[in-house]
Amino acid sequence: MITVFFTMIRREIQEHKVAFIYAPFAVALVLCFVIASVYFGITDIQTNEFNFSTEIYDEDYQEAMLLASPEAKARVIRAGLIFLGLPILLTVGFGLLAYSLSTFADERKDKSLIFWRSMPVSDLTTVFSKLLFVIFIVPLLVMPNIILLQSVAMLSASIYFVSNDIVPFSYLWTSYFLTDWFRIIFSLWAQALWSLPIFLWLMFAGTYARRPVIGAAVPLVATIVLERIIFKTNEVWGFIDNRLGFWSRADSFPIALEEIRVVDISDIILMLSTQAFWIGMIASAILVAGIVYTRSTNNDYTVE
Question: Considering the domain boundaries, does residue 179 fall inside one?
Fold first, then answer.
């Protein structure tokens, strides 16, 4: 069984390496180039909402950096590095939405479902292999890009600081913990579980709808509108909205996090203990059953 899952995971990686390997890497390279260009004085980025320039390091800013407590310094540095990685996470997030919508629709469209049914692999095993890919494998594929981006940012900033006698080269490196990378992985795994009902709904639409986008959107829109008219509530939309966002920022999360930071393992445990999380797990289990049943009885290989 392990060999089967390993083979099917390799298949998913090979078929979707553009979305989950090449695209995040390309985004990371662009971000690395921009960051290095700013710190080496080639360019800067200044808008009404955002300022990324070496001009901010004036005498007052340098003094504040030197006088900052170790805790405050670590908090700012770690938040900045997390913020830099958001474009990579957004790229992968859109990739996961597209993957979920197309993965079962494509096998109907190109009639490869006929071939996969001839293999000694059950529908349940196929579905679970895709869940493992979404929940555990994709976050692992993302991490090398985040590590690369953060390393380039730290190195570029450190070279700039020591070259301009602002702070020592070790200023940043002593304030960032390599264990944060492991916490990011666990946080991404938690995010995949939190957003799993969304991914599974899109997969389910791909198993039955001739037009998967319409098949996914129309029932949700109809449910949201009917709920609003009949019950005067927005529970369905609130559920979807929360699942599309970061789990630590959800309305149901017991702690209001005011700052961007690397979550603690205790935060993940707290998320796993919430009622909202388990409602999502129950919905996911129902959707998995629906996907397995629909795929196993599907004789319609037409998708527009």
Answer: yes
